[in-house]
Design a protein that fits this description.
Layout lengths: L2 E6 L4 E3 L2 H6 L8 E5 L2 H9 L5 E2 L12 E6 L2 E5 L2 H8 L6 E5 L2 H13 L8 H14 L2 E6 L4 E3 L2 H8 L6 E5 L2 H8 L4 H8 L22
Length: 217
């Protein structure tokens, strides 16, 4: 029996039908999900990505000079120091976090990538134009060998994990999926090969195709 695990989406959990999983990841920014052959594997996937704590109250504007938002990690919320971020993302698969100087921007990032809310309501033409601009501007820094491997959204964070690390291996990508594969130890050739069979993203009926089954090691 095939099941679908959604770790980050409008609703998380294990779904037995692709349509049920799909409605919880469509329009959710950077959702995390995977297709499995057993519920045991799917539940293990979710358990590995379940946060220990979720911050209920945000800090005040005057509390910190810098705000660090952790949207995916063991401790979810907005913090005032990078040590809290490091603690939250250590050994967490596919962490997502970002540094801000303004609290409102930190909160907006949290709401968008942790809850999937805050999307702009604009015309299709404007949305497409903004999406193209965002895609061109976004960068992902993958660290395959460093103090802490993973995918980072700023060069500063990447640099912190690679400076003074002998044999550090890192690379900048414009696609989070490719960056994640590189951080997991895949070569550029393997990444291209992994993308090859997935180039067709929609079926004849215009619906997204189901993700491929990937057996756990």
């Amino acid at each position: 029996m095939v099941v679908y695990a959604v770790a980050n989406g409008f609703k998380t959990g294990v779904f037995k039908k692709w349509d049920e999983a799909k409605k919880n990841i469509d329009d959710f920014p950077q959702p995390v999900y995977k297709k499995f052959e057993t519920e045991e594997e799917a539940n293990e996937f979710l358990e590995q990505r379940t946060p220990r704590t979720v911050q209920e109250n945000f800090p005040e504007e005057d509390d910190f000079k810098t705000f660090y938002t952790v949207a995916r990690g063991y401790d979810i919320g907005i913090f005032g120091d990078y040590k809290s971020v490091e603690k939250s993302i250590k050994d967490y698969p596919q962490p997502l976090h970002k540094k801000f100087t303004k609290l409102d921007e930190a909160i907006a990032y949290y709401n968008r990538f942790q809850k999937g809310i805050g999307a702009e309501t604009t015309s299709p033409k404007t949305v497409k134009k903004n999406a193209v601009k965002e895609e061109k501007a976004k960068a992902y820094y993958a660290v395959a060998r460093g103090h802490k491997t993973g995918v980072y959204l700023t060069w500063e964070e990447c640099k912190q994990q690679t400076t003074d690390f002998k044999g550090a291996k890192f690379k900048k990508f414009d696609n989070e999926g490719d960056a994640q594969l590189f951080a997991e130890g895949k070569t550029l050739k393997q990444i291209e090969e992994a993308k090859a069979p997935k180039r067709k993203s929609t079926g004849d009926d215009g619906q997204d195709e189901e993700p491929e089954v990937k057996k756990s090691a």
